[in-house]
Write a sequence for this structure.
């Protein structure tokens, strides 16, 4: 069933601002009451030719599994979970298996500054880094040592380099993307930090919500320097001792931009210090060449069906508009389409999915058009004339007025 839905898009632009517009005439979104993870799994497997996998096998495991990624060259599958990392053949034969925990951890202090204790290591990031046509590495991040990340040999799975305190040991997920920046490639990381990081010995730690990190050489996972005098590339969501929490759901690259699908607190809830917090799903955009994050953009996504709002994103996937969707839309076969599954909740993301779920399809080019239009209206004074108060109060400089910007601050894809 096709529905012309009204996802309320709240847009922030180069000056880190937010407004609401009606996006209903710019994109048709397909909504289906269906099991979200099953559909996304089918989409993922449809990206690989059946001949690559041959005869199917059943793999029985007792491990708690969290993340997986596919090798586009060999078809091998990498799976990360609680205390385990697996390499599987296309037909699900175990090619390699290593233990990643339990290990000595420092839960209540920076690494090495108190007595450690043994803790489980749950995988938070897993992706393949394609150095070139022949060389590949496996990027993994776990929960121990405040989110240690490793660069691993793709065959032996042995660690070649590592860095502590990248993705935190919060039970919330983290997301990472490898994308171009200044004629090289870097790792863009989005992660959430618990309230405990504002207390006691952990308060001294720098809590980076979004960061750009080196992926090559001896300085893997170190922060990328954005200029000789500008420091490093990151965003920190915080306000004194109040921790602005973000749950990162999915990350992807499209064109010249990187995107994160998130669930986070609304501006109104943040301003009022609401308890419980009012949450909404967002898509955040970063220009790959904007290493200072001056053009950071947030776009709240809302999916409605039969008068009900499904406000919590659960999973996401980037695909092409093939088959029936391509035939019945204005999209080209090469266009990117973001698929997001949602559930409804009034009590936050901790409760988990409700009985009803929906799927929305967002053409990426339509999202970018809406963002560019909003940026232009901001800098030409349209929104200030309407008396709209804009801003991202949890970011430094997030309340900068439109009048302080000029049209050259608008970036289009």
């Amino acid at each position: 069933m096709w529905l012309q839905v009204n996802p309320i898009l709240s847009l922030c632009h180069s000056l880190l601002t937010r407004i609401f517009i009606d996006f209903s005439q710019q994109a048709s979104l397909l909504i289906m009451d269906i099991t979200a993870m099953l559909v996304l799994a089918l989409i993922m497997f449809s990206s690989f030719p059946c001949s690559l996998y041959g005869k199917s096998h059943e793999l029985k495991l007792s491990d708690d599994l969290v993340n997986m990624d596919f090798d586009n060259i060999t078809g091998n599958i990498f799976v990360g979970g609680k205390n385990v990392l697996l390499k599987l053949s296309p037909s699900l034969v175990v090619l390699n298996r290593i233990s990643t925990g339990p290990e000595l951890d420092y839960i209540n202090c920076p690494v090495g500054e108190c007595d450690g204790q043994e803790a489980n290591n749950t995988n938070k990031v897993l992706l393949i880094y394609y150095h070139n046509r022949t060389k590949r590495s496996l990027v993994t991040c776990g929960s121990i040592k405040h989110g240690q990340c490793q660069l691993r040999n793709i065959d032996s799975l042995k660690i070649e380099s590592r860095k502590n305190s990248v993705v935190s040991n919060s039970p919330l997920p983290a997301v990472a993307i490898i994308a171009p920046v200044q004629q090289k490639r870097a790792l863009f990381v989005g992660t959430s930090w618990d309230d405990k990081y504002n207390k006691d010995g952990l308060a001294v730690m720098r809590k980076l919500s979004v960061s750009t990190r080196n992926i090559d050489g001896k300085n893997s996972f170190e922060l990328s320097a954005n200029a000789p005098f500008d420091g490093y590339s990151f965003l920190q969501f915080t306000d004194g001792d109040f921790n602005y929490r973000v749950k990162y759901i999915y990350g992807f690259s499209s064109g010249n931009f990187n995107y994160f699908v998130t669930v986070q607190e609304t501006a109104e809830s943040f301003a009022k210090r609401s308890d419980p917090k009012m949450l909404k799903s967002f898509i955040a955009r970063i220009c790959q060449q904007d290493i200072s994050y001056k053009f950071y953009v947030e776009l709240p996504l809302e999916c409605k069906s039969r008068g009900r709002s499904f406000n919590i994103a659960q999973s996401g996937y980037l695909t092409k508009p093939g088959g029936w969707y391509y035939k019945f839309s204005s999209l080209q076969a090469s266009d990117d389409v973001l698929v997001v599954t949602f559930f409804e909740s009034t009590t936050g993301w901790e409760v988990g999915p409700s009985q009803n779920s929906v799927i929305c399809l967002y053409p990426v080019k339509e999202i970018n058009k809406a963002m560019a239009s909003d940026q232009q209206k901001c800098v030409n004074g349209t929104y200030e004339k309407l008396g709209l108060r804009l801003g991202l109060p949890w970011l430094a400089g997030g309340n900068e007025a439109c009048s302080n910007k000029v049209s050259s601050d608008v970036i289009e894809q």
